[in-house]
Amino acid sequence: MKTPAEYYMRDRRLHPPAYAPGYKTSVARSPRQALISLENTVSEITGPRFDHSDIAPGDNDLLTNYATCGETAIGERIILHGRVLDQDAKPVRNTLVEVWQANAGGRYRHKKDNYLAPMDPNFGGCGRTVTDDDGYYFFRTVKPGAYPWPNQVNNWRPAHVHFSVFGSAFAQRLITQCYFEGDPLIPICPIVLTIPDPSAIDRLVARLDVNQTIPFDAIAYRFDIVLRGRRSTLFENRLEGN
Amino acid sequence: MLYPQSYLPETASQTAGPYVHIGLLPSDTGIEIYDHELGRHIAGPNAAGERIRIEGLLIDGNGATLKDGLIEVWQANAAGVYAHPESSGDVEDGFRGWGRVIADFESGAWSFETVKPGAVPGRGGTVQAPHISLWIVARGINIGLNTRLYFDDERAANDADPVLGRVDPPHRRETLIANRDDSGPIPVYRFDVHLQGDGETVFFDI
Questions:
Q1: pTM (2 decimals)?
Q2: Is some CB atom of chain B closer than 8 A to the CB atom of A89?
């Protein structure tokens, strides 16, 4: 009888280090001490649970969720979709996926964003959904624009959508960013380049998905997310020792 | 880079950036899209136990207060049970155990109201002192920082806690212990997080 136990150790070579001086804000916001490794306890293998009662049906449609009735956001209409899996390729079901992004011109609806590109009165920029039994999610939105940011004097973020995912344990909690295939800003972005492993960068790039594109309506992009997998133990070392 | 064929590599983390609030607490930025925000109510009205308030600041390596951070918390109820099927027992109706707050844009202060958690089982038959798990993201933080908040009025339990016991040198354990203040209408525990430098908070690889 296999008993689910700890989550697989995070391979930190695939993640950005805390201190990544090319991304200047990380210099003063990165711990200098080593992380203390903690074998999972019940506190780490549990986490908040969500279901469809937590969200409303239109929450995943950024084209319309902030728009005046009958209007939609301006920009390239896209479907951004994929699956949330664990490292064993099992679907992560009923998990909350939240996104936020700038509008088609690269402007965020945020009091601290004073970029000169205008707001879109029909675009808010956030969405949320809960994965189905296959771990599948989708959003309708506009493709965000690139935008400038104060790091070096002339840095521009590639078009990107921020993703927040929970999984079923606090140990799986993840925030990342999704980029778009073919964007020439990706390989020169200091935030992208905080990730040391080129293959890990590649996996953050959503692919054009012609098969799911809706003719005369919206282009589809596919972005799959992988959360930490979970060990099964054959031994009698249950976490709670009872 | 070679990976065992049978395992998919985990998706890489990226910073939450300066506008994380748009996505995770939009009404705090004036965006009214959702009929309700998630993470506002940790314990709910039916939860047993002592009602407490946690408050603090996030402080960077220069001693400056972060004004754009976001913190999520995960905790057991007063009986030491998590709202999750893998925790033994039931929780009160409406007890979620999870909360989400942002630092104030002007002052950087953050706070949340909850109930004080009970002790939960540790590994191998041990008992963990009451604690709240925290996950901290912000601009400049490339991968969420995991830490724990313990309570200064649980000294005996803290001294026996298996996780605090792993922190070496021992004086760094104090960075995880919140200080109780009974001068207000409800007990307040103060918990400042120092990201770097003097008094740097202990962060965990969980």
A1: 0.96
A2: yes
